[in-house]
Design a protein that fits this description.
Elements: H1 3-17, H2 34-55, H3 67-82, H4 88-102, E1 108-111, E2 119-120, E3 123-128, E4 131-137, E5 147-151, E6 154-155, H5 156-164, H6 174-180, E7 198-202, E8 208-212, E9 216-217, E10 238-243, E11 246-250, H7 258-273, H8 275-279, E12 283-287, H9 297-307, H10 309-320, E13 324-328, H11 331-343, H12 348-367, E14 371-373, E15 395-400, H13 407-415, E16 421-425, E17 434-441, E18 447-457, E19 471-472, H14 480-488
Parallel strand pairs: 11-12, 12-15, 15-16, 16-19
Antiparallel strand pairs: 1-18, 2-9, 3-4, 4-5, 5-6, 5-7, 7-8, 10-11, 13-14, 13-18, 17-18
Helix pairs in contact: 2-3, 2-4, 3-4, 7-9, 9-10, 11-12
Length: 490
C-alpha cells in the first residue's frame, strides 16, 4: 500500500476511532456522601494517571522526554483540588484539571456527571481577536458589541487565564480563546470559582461604565439568540453562487453520513461541470465553519478538483516524505486495534490496513518493543520531476473557524500549498502529535480516559502548530451574509 493511500486511510481511521457513543453512567453506586465523593474522585484521578501511563505513546517518546513528569504533575494538581472541595462538581473540575495540565485535546480524561443549569448575569459574551465582546444582552445598559474590559479589578485576559484555562482548553492556542471565551461569564457550578461581582464595559465610542452582576439561571429562551454565536449559520454541503462571480463551497463536516457523502460527490461533479466558470470567477470561498474534522479525503478531493490531481499529489508528497507513524504497542492498545478488524470488515482497504497494524502491534508487544512503526513506501519516484503548475488561479478565500483541527487542519495544509489561497477568519486550532484516540472507563463509571494510540514522527506540521488568518475577521457576526459582504470588498 503506497504512502498516498495510507495517509488517506489513517485519517479515515481517525474518524472511526474518535466517535464512540458517550453516555452518563446510570449506576446504583453513585456517591452520596462527601466521603464517598472524595474517595471516588481520588480513585478516578489515580486511574486516569495509571491508564495513561500504561498506554500513552508519550511515555516512550524520545522526542518528548518531559511527558512522564507532566503526567505526574497532572495527577498531583488534580488530587490537590480533590482535597479542597467535595461533591459531583468538584469531581468534574478535578478531572478537568488533570486534562488541562497536559494541554492536549487527544489526552487526559473527562467527567460525564450531570451539570447544573447554566447561570448568567443577563448577557452572554465571547472572545474575538484580543477582547471579550457582548454577543447578546437582556440588560438595557449593556449592548451587543460592547467590550468587557475588566471584572473585579482584573483584566478579562488575566481572568481568562486564571478562571477558564485552568479547567478548559489550551491557553497557548489563540483559537481556544475564541472557543472558550463564553465560559468567563457563565457559571456552571465549579466549586473552585466564585462568580464575578462587577464588570466594566467599553462602548464603541470609548465611553466606559460599570455594572454589578446579578446571577440567575439562564432562561431557555436565550438559546435561540445564541445559535449563531460560535460559527454563524451552517450551510449544507454544496457549491453555490451567492453572487454571479463568487462561488461558495460549504464543507461543514468531514465526518459524514450517507447523505453528506452523496452531497460531496455532487460537489465534485459540479466543480467539473462549472470549471470554466470557476477559472474566471472573482473568488471561490471554501467555507469550513462548523467543521470539526473527520476524514481528510473530502478536502483532498476538493483540492484535486480545483487545482488538479497531479499538481496536488506532487505538492503533498513533498511535505510528507519523511513522516512516520509509531503505534504504542501496549496490551490494551493492541487489543483495541484488534477489535476494529471486525468493525470494518466490510471496508476492504481499511480492513487490510487495520489487520496489518494489529499484527505489527502484537509482534511488538510480544518482543517488548514499545512501538510498532508503520511501514511506508515512497511515491515520489512516481511523480514528475519538474514542478507542475495549476491553471486554477482564481482567488480562494478559506473561512477558518477557531475549532478547526484534525482533518480540518489537513484541509488547510492542502489549500495553503497554493499561492492563490487566503485564510480568512479566526486562528485555527492545533493538533497534537498524539492521535487515534480510544476511550477507557474511569472506575466510577462517571467519566472516561482519553488514550491516544499513535504518535507522528517528523510530521511537517509540528505539535501545537496552528494557522493564523491572512485576513483576520474579528467581528461578532459570522453569518453567511456578513462574511459575503466582507469578502466582496477584498
Amino acid at each position: 500500500m503506497n504512502r498516498k493511500t495510507k495517509m488517506v486511510s489513517r485519517t479515515l481511521l481517525s474518524a472511526l476511532l474518535i466517535t464512540p457513543t458517550l453516555s452518563m453512567a446510570e449506576l446504583s453506586l453513585t456517591p452520596k456522601t462527601p466521603e464517598q465523593w472524595r474517595s471516588v474522585t481520588e480513585r478516578d484521578i489515580e486511574a486516569a494517571y495509571s491508564i495513561s501511563a500504561k498506554n500513552h505513546p508519550g511515555m516512550f517518546d524520545v522526542n518528548n522526554p518531559a511527558f512522564p513528569e507532566l503526567l505526574k504533575q497532572a495527577k498531583a494538581e488534580a488530587l490537590t483540588l480533590s482535597k479542597q472541595a467535595i461533591g459531583p462538581q468538584a469531581h468534574a473540575a478535578a478531572i478537568a484539571r488533570f486534562s488541562t495540565v497536559l494541554q492536549d485535546g487527544h489526552a487526559g480524561a473527562f467527567s460525564s456527571i450531570d451539570r447544573p443549569a447554566r447561570r448568567w448575569p443577563g448577557f452572554s459574551a465571547l472572545w474575538r481577536g484580543d477582547a471579550l465582546k457582548v454577543y447578546y444582552s437582556e440588560i438595557s445598559t449593556i449592548k451587543k458589541g460592547d467590550i468587557v474590559s475588566q471584572c473585579d479589578g482584573q483584566s478579562t485576559e488575566a481572568l481568562m487565564r486564571k478562571r477558564v484555562f485552568t479547567f478548559h482548553g489550551q491557553v497557548a492556542q489563540p483559537g481556544h480563546w475564541w472557543q472558550q471565551g463564553w465560559r468567563l461569564l457563565t457559571d456552571v457550578g465549579n466549586p473552585f470559582l466564585v462568580p464575578l461581582k462587577e464588570c466594566e464595559f467599553v462602548k464603541p465610542n470609548g465611553n466606559t461604565h460599570k455594572q454589578v452582576l446579578n446571577w440567575s439561571v439562564r432562561p431557555k429562551s436565550v438559546s435561540k439568540h445564541l445559535e449563531n454565536a460560535y460559527n454563524g449559520d451552517e450551510l449544507p454541503i454544496d457549491l453555490i453562487w451567492p453572487e454571479k462571480n463568487i462561488a461558495w463551497i460549504a464543507m461543514p463536516s468531514f465526518s459524514v453520513n450517507d447523505k453528506q457523502t452523496a452531497d460531496y460527490k455532487k460537489v465534485f461533479e459540479k466543480i467539473k461541470q462549472q470549471r470554466s466558470k470557476l477559472l474566471t470567477a472573482k473568488a471561490v470561498v471554501l467555507d469550513l465553519r462548523h467543521n470539526q474534522g473527520g476524514s481528510s479525503y473530502w478536502s483532498s478531493q476538493i483540492a484535486k478538483e480545483l487545482w488538479g490531481k497531479k499538481v496536488v499529489e506532487q505538492k503533498t508528497a513533498g511535505t510528507t516524505q519523511n513522516e512516520q507513524v509509531w503505534w504504542r504497542a501496549s496490551k490494551d492498545n493492541t487489543n483495541y486495534v484488534k477489535s476494529l478488524i471486525d468493525v470494518i470488515k466490510d471496508q476492504p482497504e481499511f480492513h487490510e490496513l487495520i489487520k496489518e497494524i494489529a499484527a505489527g502491534m502484537a509482534l511488538s508487544l510480544k518482543s517488548g518493543d514499545p512501538f510498532y512503526v508503520e511501514r511506508e513506501t515512497n511515491t515520489l519516484n512516481n511523480l514528475p520531476e519538474e514542478p507542475l503548475v495549476s491553471d486554477f488561479k482564481t482567488k480562494v478565500f478559506v473561512i477558518v473557524p477557531p475549532q478547526c483541527a484534525s482533518a480540518c487542519l489537513d484541509a488547510l495544509d492542502k489549500f495553503k500549498l497554493f499561492e492563490n489561497t487566503t485564510l480568512f477568519g479566526a486562528p485555527s486550532s492545533a493538533d497534537s502529535l498524539y492521535m487515534e484516540v480510544r476511550l477507557a472507563d474511569l472506575p466510577s463509571g462517571l467519566g472516561k480516559v482519553i488514550v491516544p494510540n499513535k504518535v507522528y514522527v517528523n510530521r511537517a506540521r509540528g505539535k501545537g502548530d496552528y494557522y493564523k488568518p491572512d485576513i483576520a475577521y474579528n467581528d461578532i457576526d459570522w453569518t453567511t451574509d456578513k462574511l459575503l459582504e466582507k469578502i466582496k470588498l477584498l
